[in-house]
Write a structure and sequence with these properties.
- A 6-stranded antiparallel beta sheet has the order 1-2-6-5-4-3, sandwiched between helices.
- The protein has one domain.
- By secondary structure, the protein is α+β, with helices and mostly antiparallel strands.
- The protein is globular and about 40 Å long.
- It has 6 helices and 6 strands.
- Helix content is about 35%, strand content about 30%.
């Protein structure tokens, strides 16, 4: 009987974690099928493949790539409510989980926010970028064992919406 109860508890715990989804994941899912949006989602396996083919002279690239577990981008460049979407996405962030690193605000023109999520040891495990204007919106989430300085150095070479703003956070906060 104890074995049956223990098995049921383990099954239920696994089932609940399988259905658990962060607020940002839900926001991403909500808009990922909307035709106005470009969606990019890179899975961990692609990062490991990229690390395998990296050149020896790309030490920064290799060290960043091997520590990434995911990248998601949700971007729209022709919406009528970019700033409203920015506020909606920002409201979804769990304030006790994410720490704001940077905020840029030009009234009725542009808003940019960077957030991080750290584990208990102070390692950065997620970087979130929200960026918007009246007609544009970008949400970017990078997960893994992150080094902001290395990511910001590589951000200029990536042709992914929102990555160009990552150079703003390099050196802002780094715990190792």
């Amino acid at each position: 009987m104890k074995t049956l109860i223990a098995s049921l508890m383990i099954f239920c715990a696994g089932l609940s974690s399988a259905f658990a989804q962060s607020a940002l994941d839900k926001f991403f899912s909500e808009y990922s099928r909307d035709e106005r949006f470009t969606v990019v989602e890179i899975k961990p396996r692609l990062f490991s493949l990229m690390a395998e083919v990296a050149n020896d002279d790309q030490d920064d690239f290799d060290s960043v790539i091997t520590n990434l577990t995911g990248l998601k981008v949700l971007a729209a460049d022709n919406v009528t409510n970019g700033l409203t979407m920015f506020k909606k996405a920002g409201a979804k962030l769990e304030k006790n989980r994410y720490e704001e690193l940077l905020y840029v605000h030009k009234p009725n023109k542009t808003e940019v926010r960077f957030y991080i999520d750290e584990d208990k040891s102070g390692k950065i495990k997620e970087l979130v970028l929200l960026s918007a204007s009246p007609t544009n919106f970008v949400m970017l989430s990078i997960t893994g064992n992150l080094d902001l300085d290395k990511i910001s150095k590589l951000s200029g070479s990536a042709d992914i919406p929102g990555m160009e703003d990552l150079d703003k956070v390099g050196g802002k906060k780094k715990k190792e």
